[in-house]
Structure formats: structure tokens, C-alpha cells
Amino acid sequence: MTDQKVKELKVLAARIRLETLKVIHSRGFGHVGGSMDLADLMAVLYGDVMRYDPKNPRWEDRDWLVLSKGHAGPVAYATFGLMGYYPLEEAYTLNQPHTKFPSHTDRKLTPGVDLTTGSLGQGVSTATGAALGNRIDGRDNRVFCVIGDGEADEGQVWEALHFAYAHKLDNIVYFMDNNGYQLDGPTADILSHGDLAKKVAGFGLHVQEIDGHDVAAIREAIDNALNTKGVPSCIVLDTLKGKGATFAEPKREHSSQPKEEAWLEAIAASEAALNELMD
Ligand SMILES: Cc1ncc(C[n+]2csc(CCOP(=O)(O)OP(=O)(O)O)c2C)c(N)n1
Fold first, then answer.
1. Which residues of the chain, if any, have pLDDT below 70?
2. Could you identify which of 88, 128, 174, 279 might form a hypothetical disulfide with 160, taking C-beta atoms 3.0 to 4.6 angstroms apart as the criterion?
């Protein structure tokens, strides 16, 4: 990837972070931690990898994103707004009555959302089913599915990976957002996975583990995954929960409801980070 492209994707990730904060700020509280840590992945997917048409969100040749950790909806709403699916301001109605932007992603409400998620574990199965469906229909759409490390406490996640392996689904790429935390605290304290990458590899998948905030590494890992034939791929993203949110990152907060002053400080810091990249 050229230096110029790396810079472009870093700027996009910073924009996504800022907009994610603004979207959640509009409601005053929400899942900041698990949304902010996905900004770099979303920048690479929507800025460089995926095939999509914001003017035709249901375009049949599009690639699919399934945010199986559906509580990270705000990072998707920020990304889709930036990509032109709708005016960003529309997403500043997060979780309000009659909004198109619920806290968890819903395919019937939000342009750009391909599958409804929120009940952890289930999105991995439906994403895998979508990949099988594409295979049966002879389509070359790819499916990208994001799983939380806490979500991976659900047995259903592992059934889906087993299924994908058995059916040789090489048209799906799973991402494990390995931020080390879930709702109640550190994943290692609640239900430790041991080495998550090794565990996924034990299910037969092609596995890579990378810095989930390094856009060039994410792009390269996705290329490797898409070039690996006959076996599904999983990219374990080592991330920092709350990345870039001044009030959430130090505590790896799951849900946040900071005072207005702390919101404004976080938004200002995020704007400053973006401006620094553009200098
Ligand atoms: C089946 C199910 N059980 C419980 C919840 C409540 N819940 C929402 S988020 C969350 C923690 C998820 O942790 P992780 O997947 O690691 O998300 P991240 O830390 O990346 O935000 C839980 C338990 C849920 N949404 N679905």
C-alpha cells in the first residue's frame, strides 16, 4: 500500500472516530468502547476493500458486513454516513423513538446494515449462512463478520466456525475484536479463551493475528485472507477498547455516560487528532 493510501485510511479512521463520538453524544450514553476500537477496521473495509454502492444499499453484487457484536452500531452509522449512505446528521438520533439508528444494528431500519444483530453469537451464524448462500447462488460477494472476544464466550460462535470450515467457505472473513474486555470486565477473568488465535486455528481456519489499529497491517491481512482458498479465514485484531475516547479508553469502558464536559473534551481531542493527521 502506498504511503498516500495509508495516510488516507488513517484520516478516514480518525473521521470515523470523531463521528462515532458525535453519534453517541447525541443520545448522551452508549457503547463507546466497542465502537471506537473498530474505526481502523471500518476505514480499511469501506475505504479500500469492500464493494458497495451507497445510493443502492441493497445492490446485489455488494460485499456484506455483519457486525455480530451489534452493540457497536454507532461505528457503522458513522462510517455509512461518511460514505454517503445518508446525511450524517440523521444518525444524531441514535436510539431515539422512531429512529433509523438503534443502538444495535437492524437491517430493516438502517441503509447499509446487511444483517440484524445484537443477540451475541447469532450474527456469526447468519453471516456464515449468507456466505453459503452466495456460494450456492454462484455469486462472488464476500462477507466480513466482526465478532467480539466476549461474544466468543457463546458456543454458537464456534458452531458457526466449525460449519464454515466443514463447508470450505473461503468467501467469508471473520474478525475477532480481541480487546480483552467485555461487559463485566476482562475476558480473561470472566471466561478465559487462552490464546484466542490458537483456538480459532484449532477449528481449522486460516488465522492471522495483527495490531487492529494498523491500517496497512489490516489491509495486508485481508488480502492474505481473500487469497487463501478452500478454507475460511479469521483475523484476530488486537485492539484497545475505547481507542481515542478520552473518557473511555483509560478504563476500557463498555458503556459510557460521561458528563457533558467530558463529552466535549473527548470530541475536541478527537478533532485535534484528525487535524494533526491532515497537517
Ligand atoms: C446473547 C447475549 N447475551 C448478553 C448480551 C449483553 N451484552 C452486550 S455487549 C456484551 C459484552 C460483549 O463483549 P465483547 O463481545 O467483547 O464486546 P466488546 O468488548 O468488543 O464491545 C454483553 C454481555 C447480548 N447482547 N447478547
1. none
2. 128
